[in-house]
């Protein structure tokens, strides 16, 4: 004869059974405890018993604070807590977009950016009981005026067609508009609005006077990005002008140096000399110098001929009786 009992703090509770097997169905945490099996030998009337401790492991539903969704302004800090009662020690892991964001019952988002927005999942597991786990999520929204991804400087040929991309991030989702001057040949070829992001693509013909600005706005503010496009070859022209000026300066310096050294014919000005290298007894050597007042004068030779000023430089005249 077998009977089963469950001891309590006051008295033992008998569990009715028809066989020597006790079956507990739909167990809960209240079914945990010490179970005793009693057996009576009908021949000797000896009673034997044995005890078994039953532990029902459990993990209660997760409590998230805040729950469901949470909003904060750009740059603010948010702390989210995740708790669940369990019969055993638990482990808590936070996930976002498949990446682990932290461990422990609390998660702190400091200096929130637009990238901080998204769904955060709290996963609670019981390492001692494989397969016992729960999860819950909270959606975090970061509010702020748009931030425009600043365009890079472009260098294109005049008359070429280029596609300019404007990308803005913000929440509520921003709208994008364009300001174009210097050309009438432009059009928006693509526009997309996604999670906290808006993208617009503008096709435009490059001109020397092209100016183009991308504007992004939402209910919290606006921002803009300026596209800088330079023409290919314009830098080469500027360098050529600078080199030309330097060459002219060097050439002027060389000419001035040669003039000072007397290597350049003086023309109507400068030092004028009339001499004979090997003069004898009857030779006369005459050295003449003129100033600016004498530039228009004529040098009278011994034979009475007039000589122009251009023949008065670096020449020697033999004056003999």
Overall description:
By secondary structure, this protein is mostly beta strands. The chain folds into four domains: 2-54, no CATH class; 63-144, Immunoglobulin-like, CATH 2.60.40; 149-231, Immunoglobulins (Immunoglobulin-like, Sandwich), CATH 2.60.40; 265-321, no CATH class. 8% of the residues lie in helices and 43% in strands. It contains one helix and 22 strands. It has one helix at residues 234-260, and strands at residues 2-6, 13-15, 33-40, 47-54, 63-65, 68-73, 78-83, 91-96, 99-103, 106-109, 118-125, 133-148, 154-156, 161-171, 175-181, 186-194, 197-205, 211-218, 221-227, 229-231, 299-300, 306-307. The strands form six sheets. Strands 6, 8, 9, 11, 12, 14, 16 and 17 form an eight-stranded mixed sheet that branches. A hairpin with a 6-residue loop joins strand 3 (33-40) and strand 4. The protein is rod-shaped. The model is unreliable at 268-277, 279-304 and 309-321 (pLDDT under 50). Keywords: Glycoprotein, Membrane, Transmembrane, Transmembrane helix. This is Cell surface glycoprotein MUC18. Residues 304-321 have a biased composition (Basic and acidic residues). InterPro entries: Ig-like_dom (IPR007110), Ig-like_dom_sf (IPR036179), Ig-like_fold (IPR013783), Ig_sub (IPR003599), Ig_sub2 (IPR003598), Surface_Rcpt/Adhesion_Mol (IPR051116). It is a single-pass type I membrane protein.
